[in-house]
Design goal:
The structure holds two protein chains of two kinds. By secondary structure, chain A is of the alpha+beta class. Helix content of chain A is 19%, strand content 20%. Chain A contains five helices and seven strands, in the order αββαβαββαβαβ. Chain A has a four-stranded antiparallel beta sheet. A three-stranded antiparallel beta sheet of chain A has the order 1-5-3. The longest helix of chain A is centred in the last third of the chain and has 10 residues. Chain B has a five-stranded mixed beta sheet with strand order 2-1-5-3-4. In chain B, a hairpin with a 2-residue loop joins strand 1 and strand 2. The longest helix of chain B has 18 residues. Classes of the chains: A alpha+beta, B alpha+beta. Chains A and B meet through helix 1 of A and helix 1, helix 2, helix 3 and helix 4 of B.
């Protein structure tokens, strides 16, 4: 055994002539993408596959007073209408943490809003149906009643309060189809 | 609205007969009934351009057109104009310049670009950007796409000259 340290090549693998640096790298999958023959998640069809459409909140801050899913549940093709409390029985809320900042964590976030919504576009209910058309149609048939809560008023923004007031106690039918 | 309507049309050169609900849009008809999934559904309200197809020679948003409106029409999708070789040079220009990453917008981009090149054999970069302004790309950006369309226009002009 020699005690002399091994001589190191001063060039790394990236410095060698065949490296990717500065070269156009051909991508073999481009052809099928350009021919319309890619397979994206929305192209996948599985046996007994169902589609989901989320009913989303038009308000940034509101209380959910009632959800009437009876009409939607009766419609043909509908497998289930799921609300926040129902989903909470099988999914624990997500809590965001940072590995480099121990102790910092977000408030628990439920997969579907429970009792109140905290942001515009938050899911309030999910309609699951055999076809995407059926779930879209049925989501339209669902009624959700909400009380828009008054947002805390930033100084000088009187319009925000007025806007929230006019939106109060509104019954809404809202649809957003997940891509 | 719940009764199916019989339609007859030509899709990529093939005659198609189908019974569709009046509310079915053309994009869903192409994707779900004909399994032509190269036509992509992005925004579903005519903004993103991913669903662009050709109907009677004009490019349209297939998410904004009902399938029943294409009765007796001629529809061409990315699969059709790709297989016919019509855009082979445009596709290789996209490949050479890596003008796509995920490729979701690409069928619509190619449709819109080919439409421009048919109308205008030597578009400048501003005209290319204008014509593709209704097609959103959310990963590559537009520089390489404009480059590819520009070089295809030049190559085609050189071939005919």
């Amino acid at each position: 055994m020699t005690s002399e340290p091994e001589k190191r090549d001063p060039l790394s693998v990236l410095d060698r002539p065949n490296s990717y640096i500065g070269k156009i790298v051909p991508r073999p999958n481009l052809d099928r993408l350009m021919q319309g023959r890619g397979l994206y998640v929305s192209d996948v069809e599985l046996p007994r596959m169902v589609h989901v459409v989320f009913l989303r909140s038009p308000y940034a801050h509101a209380k959910i007073t009632s959800i009437d899913a009876s009409t939607a549940k009766r419609m043909p093709g509908v497998v289930a209408v799921v609300t926040g409390p129902e989903l909470a029985a099988v999914i624990t809320p997500w809590i965001g943490v940072l590995s480099h900042l121990k102790g910092l964590k977000s408030a628990p976030q439920a997969a579907i809003a429970i009792d109140r919504v905290c942001w515009q576009g938050e899911a309030v209910a999910a309609v699951v149906a055999r076809t995407s058309e059926a779930s879209t149609g049925q989501a339209r048939a669902g009624n959700v009643f909400m009380n828009a809560a008054l947002p805390r008023r930033p100084p000088g923004l009187a319009w925000a309060t007025n806007h929230a007031r006019s939106a109060r106690t509104a019954a809404w039918q809202f649809l957003c189809r997940q891509p | 609205v719940t009764t199916a309507v019989a339609i007859s049309l030509v899709v990529n050169g093939e005659h198609v007969e189908a019974n569709v609900l009046p509310r079915l849009n053309l994009a869903d008809f192409l994707r779900e009934h004909l399994k032509l999934t190269g036509t992509h559904v992005g925004c579903e309200h005519g903004v993103c351009g991913a669903c662009t197809v050709r109907v009677n020679g004009d490019i349209v948003r297939s998410c904004l057109l009902l399938a029943v409106q294409t009765h007796n029409a001629t529809v061409e999708t990315i699969e059709g104009i790709s297989d016919s070789g019509e855009i082979a040079d445009l596709q290789s220009a996209f490949r050479e310049r890596n003008a796509l990453q995920c490729g979701f917008c690409t069928p619509g981009m190619l449709m819109a670009a080919q439409d421009l090149l048919k109308q205008n054999s030597s578009p400048d970069r501003e005209q290319i950007r204008e014509h593709l302004s209704g097609n959103y790309c959310r990963c590559t950006g537009y520089q390489a796409i404009v480059d590819a369309v520009e070089s295809t226009a030049r190559a085609r002009a050189g071939r005919t000259a």
